[in-house]
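Worked example 2:
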Amino acid sequence: MKCVLFFRRSTLLFLVFLIGFTVSPAWSQVHTISGFITDIDSGEKLIGANIFVVNKSAGTVTNNYGFYSLTLPPDSLYIRISYLGFQTRNFELDLTADIELNVELSPEAVSLEGVEVVAERIENDVLSTQMSSIDVSIKEVQTLPAIFGEADILKTLQLLPGVQAGSEGSNGFYVRGGGPDQNLILLDGAPVYNASHIFGFFSVFNPEALQNVTLIKGGFPARYGGRLSSVVDISMKEGNLKTFETDGALGLISSKLTLQGPIIRDKMSFIVSGRRTYIDYIARPFIRSNEGEDAIFFFYDLNAKVNYVVNDKSRIYGSVYAGQDKFGASFEDSFESGSENFRGNLDWGNLTATLRWNYLFSNRLFANTSFIYSKYRFNTLTRIIEEFNNGGVASEVFNQISYRSGIEDWTAKIDLDYRPSPDHYIRFGANAIRHAFTPGIGRFQFEETGEIPIDTELTPDTEVFKGTEYYAYIEDDLNIGARVKANLGAHFSGMAVQGTNYTSIQPRVALRYLVGPSLSIKASFGTMQQYLHLLSNSGINLPTDLWVAATERVKPQNAWQAAGGVNYAFQDAAYELSVEGYYKGMKNLIEFRPGTSFLATNQDWQDKVEVGDGWSYGGEVFLQKKSGRTTGWIGYTLSWTEREFEGLNQGRVFPYRYDRRHDISVVVTHKLKENLDIGMTWVYGTGNAITLATARFQNADQTDFNFPDNLLGYGGRNSYRMDPYHRLDLAFNWHKDRAWYSKTGSSTLSVSIYNTYNRKNPFFIYGTSEFQGDPFLGFDPSRIVYRYRQVSLFPILPSISYRFHF
């Protein structure tokens, strides 16, 4: 073991030495231009802004905190700074010494007369080594049609190639053949373990509180780890440093309010954003049928953040997210000899907190230190209290069953950016996470007047246990000549839990070859290891799904993925095209064994699962238009996803439930007039794979019309397909400046139509026995017919929402 650790440490030290050797500047004298790029109106940092030295064909982008750095030999430079949706600024500089250049960009209005295109602009997607990555515009999310008028980040991600939705209306997503547990969802660096409200129909992310969303589905940089299939990196807004702002929205099922502004102008700011549904108030009159009955059904979100500029080199951020769902019912019933009181409820939610410190050690070295807390919990309670009065003798019976599960993390991490020259962008850092797992603890309590009370654990072998996950990484984004660029890195990770310690070294490689100023060819390869498993017996993320750690019996999940593709930017039309192919292999996946009861509380979860392998491969096409009156994209995915488990399907390979051969999405937003725009989405997908019975066996001695002895014989696992899924959604958005509540305010009235042509898409299929014939002629088992019926969830659904800003 010591030899292995020595070898791994030596490997990492060698990588550090090698990169350190190669990045030594080749010039005898160099100078550095560095600074922050911000929004002139709010002071918020702009992530991914482009800094391009036109006469040197050199450039860089701002990091997640708006910082950039360029080191060049002395010369006269012509610099262009640009960011999508903002006006481009140009600078002429004489680089004779280090320069600090902080730049504020102004938002750019879209003209109805046409689109101005800069002929010299080279799209960042073409130049970057990163592939299989897409930035999602928050403004576009708010423009697109949404179910019940609730704009949703995760539902927008489902419209991207390589990302598949789970079931109708759900925000669960499956990336390149992976499961929902294989997506790393980060909110200001904090992992979010359950991103669903209302059993999966809405996500926990309130768009009004968000600044930036990035999806990475392959070619993972070394700085990310811990999941196999994707990273969704979400940044909250920082708060306006200059003026106070109020944003709000009124919808059919929820309302939102966001406040932000300076605490100390240009020095300290805040943002607070809240959302709550009123489904419980709307539904309560329909649910209450008798006096004493009540129902609870709502969720809320709360985002808050404080941003403090200590000085030019130091900045502190503190952010918090809290969200909760509550679902329950209660009733009271009186009868002649007593009464009964029933209460049942579910509640689940997330709590995250992040404290970050940005520090600029020099104009080339930037550090971000974070302390993070994340907690997901699920609780359920069923209580029945019965009171009796028999002949003047009072007695009471108390029954209660409770169940709780969850996961809690404490994290410390440091990330450093070092930019010694335009040819190198080095990132390195380390992370440690202390997990506390509660993998499902049940409790039963019973008390009866005059009897010995019972108080027992339903899961006697289950207890809270802890584990430590850790990683370190180093990566270098380097130019190799004029046309070749590479991102080389290594991610070292480990997990110590219950006396078992797993470790892994994961190489990451991404290459880009620049064919011309608008065309590049890319390839990537990487391995990933995941130390967490999600026990799920459903097709959507339900709060009952359990997070557990790898054990000595159930190993960590691991995968490798290779991808290749091309990126092309149409210089004269603001279009971008990417075409990618990929292959991903996965090991140590888990599935529930056939016939295993998910609710069997007296059985170890390790005895309920089978461990096997999986693989996914396919191709993706993504045509995108980012600017102009009309924006949007067309995405197409052709893919195959399969699984192989020794104890399932007789050991034969079978399709994954969300194996989807064809997946198409068309997303369009168009500005008709200055005050009117429309949004449209159309999706098509091959039907989900399901398992259906192929034979029915009947007890020949049965002589009545009850069918308890029906036995069903099933074919291959997931060997049938539901009907294809397709749907058209529309949205119309009317904008108004100088609203009645503010001379400088604005408002938007949105009308959405979900499932416009009322397609009856399959939600699930169930089987039922039916007797055909005249019952007065006697019972004939041969007349029993077993039929399958389809259940569809959402018909055409119009909705309306109103947003305001001042």
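The CA atoms of residues 382 and 511 lie 56 Å apart. Residues 1-7, 9-28, 110-122 have pLDDT under 50 and may be disordered.
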